[in-house]
Amino acid sequence: MRPSLLLLLLLMGAEIAFGDTHKAVLTLEPNWTQIFVGETISLTCSTEGEDADEDDEAYYCWYKTDKEGGEAREIVQWTKDKSHTISSSVETDSGTYTCKISNDGSYSKSNAISLTVKEGIPRPVLSSDREPVFTGNTVTLRCDMGQSTGWRFYWYRNTQTSDPVAQADGNSYSIISDKVSDGGQYWCRARRGDPVYHTQYSDAVEIKVTVNPKAVATPLSNWTNIFIGETLALRCDIQGEEHNDWQYSWDKNRTSLEYQWQNYTIYFALESHSGDYSCRGTQRRDSQTSEISEAVRVTVSEKPNPVLRGPSQTWLTEGDSVTLSCEVRGSTTGWRFHWYKTAPYSPELVYVLHENRRYYLQLVSDSISGAGGSYTLSPAALRHTGVYVCRAERGEPAYHTEFSQPQPLWVTGLSPPSSVVVSPNTTQHFTLDSLSLSCERSGNSTGWRLMWFSKWTVRDLCPSAWTSETGSTCSRRSASSSDGGVYWCQSESGEKSNPVNITVHNGDVILESPTHPVTEGDPLTLRCRYRYKPSNISADFYKDGTLLQTSTTGEMTIPAVSESHEGVYRCRNPEKGESPESWVTVRVSVSDSGYSKLAVVGAVVGVMIIFIIGTTLSLMYCFKKKKASPGPQTPLPSLSPTSGQQQQNPSHSPDQSLSAGHEASVYDAINTAERYEEDDATAGPSDVTYSTIDQKSTSENVKRKKQKRGGGQPEPEIFYSELKAVKTAGEEEAEQSEPTYAQVIGKKVKGTERV
User: Fold this and answer.
1) Cys-Cys with 658: which of 35, 636, 702, 703 at CB 3.0–4.6 Å?
2) Which domains are seen in the chain, by residue range?
3) In which band, very low, low, confident or very high, does the pLDDT at 368 lie, cut at 50, 70 and 90?
């Protein structure tokens, strides 16, 4: 092989080897391929490989291509400086740059880097992600510099000359708008490089912060205490905002619910649905959230049994007035009440189960509207006797409660023909004691049966384990608490006696009180009795919950009861225990009431009679004086009693009376006629009452009368009128009445004559 050819091959191998291990690499510092006029940038040409830093003999050459597809031209010839800096760049500095490295006659060409120099100082673009901004929400500002990189951003508020409110390498800035004052004008500006190059200020962006609207959660049913089976319905509204702009979220006990509708509805509520419910809204256009609502506490309870309250005394007399009330405990909102009375079976009636037995109920016509929680019977009639219950409903569709406990009412006539006799005669009895009840009627009790009511049941047989001597008597040697109830007597025709309420107590203390009403004015004795010996114990006596008296003997007596003593009584011993309650009824005495009414009527009639008599006699007197003629007058005959006995009138002549200065008198004899029983054989004398009607005259007047009459006999000034007072049958014969006198003053009319 020729020597020249061998040398060429060796040189080519050396160059190839150098290119593999000493490849030229061109880099930018900073690494910005797009810069702006006035910025500074450096290009660095270096070798790649293990010996790159050890070779100090390398030379560098720089090339630039002004436009794509153009020819590269050498801008810097071979030099030991491996960096090329462009200071205060201009647009003509734009182009594609490469470099070449030479080392011991070997060469390596670098990669190409395109550099763009843009004219003018750049202005960033500032924008916000939402407008307006609600307090409590975050707004993000973005400062955009296009494709250029390496910038550090500065944020200004209200004025460009103030210190920046924030700076960051990123081009976004988030503002948490806690208050309205966080709003205002914002700018941004960027800078980079060394020396530092600043952009212009961005255009201002106005951030408006408004008060965050509040969500309001409300129950659609207007009540939050609901019951199992009711509908739970809540609604979320954003104050002052349109519904269509929002979507909703619900929380229960601060835990998010998978529910995004405005109305939150549970159609069959359970106790597990109890809790605190709140909601908030999220704007559809920018995802801002409202303020969370106040929590609505929902309580779901067991299905309620309404409480029916009636009178303490459940037996009434015809004409009485009674009001029943119905309420749902713990809930007073939105209820409508219906009243029912037990009735015989009919397919259209509702029923209630009690101890596995159906009781059919008829809606009382007066309560179909359902409004109000009370039902009044006034006046009560016999047909109102029965067992009453109530039920409440509310909502649409209607939710019904259970039926209330039963309330029996008995309405009897004014004078029941029969009565229940209890032995021992008290309303409260100890368990294991003997007890007997029977019907008593004047004459006999044939056709009357003892009836009793316990809870829902009305029966015409003696309670179980009782002994029945006849249909009208039931007895028990050892009473139990289940024997308690209301007992009454009922005839075959449906007549009823007043009922008695019997309590059989398994405790140690009872109150002995009368089983029947106490007549007003009679004494009332209550005893607090202990089950064991000695049975008399000291006790406190209460009426309607108020302490009346403390007795060391266990006995309290009211000498004469009045209507104010009617009420609920009980007794209590601190060590022995407390009795059940018993109602004591006070009845107004019929005889006393009748007597007082007769006395009032009699007094009124008496006054009217006296007035009529006086008026009549006065008119007769005036008329007689007007019509009288001169001459002697025939005296009126004496009155004789209706019994036939003569009752002489006082004999005195008119002249004597007048001359003596006495006034002329008119006697009114009132005979009392008596009514007697059919078996009376004889009648006693009539009572005669005289009523004198005096005409006052002076002696001068008498003289003038004589002169005018020519000295003749003056006319007697006495008039008699007979009234008969009726005496009621059965009264004892009264003694003869004492005379009663009444005066009538008459005036003589001038020119009148006597009849």
Assistant:
1) 702
2) 24-118 (2.60.40.10), 125-210 (2.60.40.10), 214-301 (2.60.40.10), 306-410 (2.60.40.10), 416-587 (2.60.40.10)
3) low
